[in-house]
Amino acid sequence: MEPRVFDDRLCALGEGPLWHPDREQLFWVDIVGQKLRSRKEEKVFEWTFDVPVSALGWIDHDNLLIAGAGVLMRFNIESGSRETICRVEPDWPDLRTNDGRADPKGGFWISTMGRRAEPGLGTIYRYYRGELRALYTGIDIPNATCFSPDGKFACFADSRERIIWRQALDRDGWPTGDRTIFLDLRQVATSPDGAIFDADGFLWGACWAKSSVARYAPNGREDLRIELPVSQITCPAFGGPNWSTLFVTTAQEGLSAEALASQPLAGAVFAVETGLRGQPDPMVIL
């Protein structure tokens, strides 16, 4: 499981990788750079936005759902056109969106946080069939939003708290009952960033400042760890023809000049052939 460079365009804060199953194409964002990027084989794409963009879902062959500061928008890949779907805390200019992912029912979970990661300003929302509903408030840095293959539970985290929570879902995909701790990473001083589930129900989590992605069994035991040549790992995503390629976004933000000199690939996107199988992100239903 040796990582290779998939795309060497460096992101200040690479995030939100999404393999579009219809197009067989990877998309990701640079939150700080306010860019959406993509690559299909040797062809590269880039679009610039007037707000930070942070999370992606796919609506159909030609359209993405993109979460940006204050807004969820429909983005047409072919034309570059943008259309507002709904507003997300538009009266709070000091907030931006962060981690998000489509759920198995076609909803979209999206989080907000302070632009300087101020304590307690974050909220996790779910957008589902025209309704945006707040689920959790008082979060510092919301992350690790992902869903079990059977759709029975979600996971999410506050990176600063170093706990990944598990939340049961009802038949419509809304939280039901109390959340429980899935992973307590405080003793190993690991701040979880983005996360996904594979087809076997194992969680793959980006380990911020730990130069790695870790795979955890359903009982929380660490199963394996993939090391990368940069420290700030932000989010994994499965894709490729057999859903066995793990794509990993990374970041430069906050690194000293010395650290950047020792990590010339910080901010690149990596790919790892795992021999294991991921699961597609569900289509978002508007």
Characterize the structure shown.
By secondary structure, the protein is mostly beta strands. It has one domain: Neuraminidase (6 Propeller). It is 2% helix and 52% strand. It contains 1 helix and 24 strands. The protein has one helix at residues 257-262, and strands at residues 4-7, 14-20, 25-30, 35-40, 43-48, 53-58, 63-68, 71-76, 82-87, 95-102, 108-114, 122-128, 131-139, 142-147, 153-158, 163-168, 180-184, 191-197, 203-208, 212-216, 222-227, 233-239, 245-250, 269-273. The strands form 6 sheets. Strands 1-24-23-22 form a 4-stranded antiparallel sheet, with no helix packed on it. A 4-stranded antiparallel sheet has the order 2-3-4-5, with no helix packed on it. The longest helix is centred in the C-terminal third of the chain and has 6 residues, at 257-262. It is globular and about 45 Å long. The mean pLDDT is 97.
In brief, what are we looking at here?
The protein has 286 residues and is mainly β. Helix content is 2%, strand content 52%.
Question: Which terms summarize this structure?
Answer:
286 residues; mainly beta; Neuraminidase; 4-stranded antiparallel beta sheet; globular
Task: List strands and helices in order, with pairings.
Blueprint: E1 4-7, E2 14-20, E3 25-30, E4 35-40, E5 43-48, E6 53-58, E7 63-68, E8 71-76, E9 82-87, E10 95-102, E11 108-114, E12 122-128, E13 131-139, E14 142-147, E15 153-158, E16 163-168, E17 180-184, E18 191-197, E19 203-208, E20 212-216, E21 222-227, E22 233-239, E23 245-250, H1 257-262, E24 269-273
Antiparallel strand pairs: 1-24, 2-3, 3-4, 4-5, 6-7, 7-8, 8-9, 10-11, 11-12, 12-13, 14-15, 15-16, 16-17, 18-19, 19-20, 20-21, 22-23, 23-24
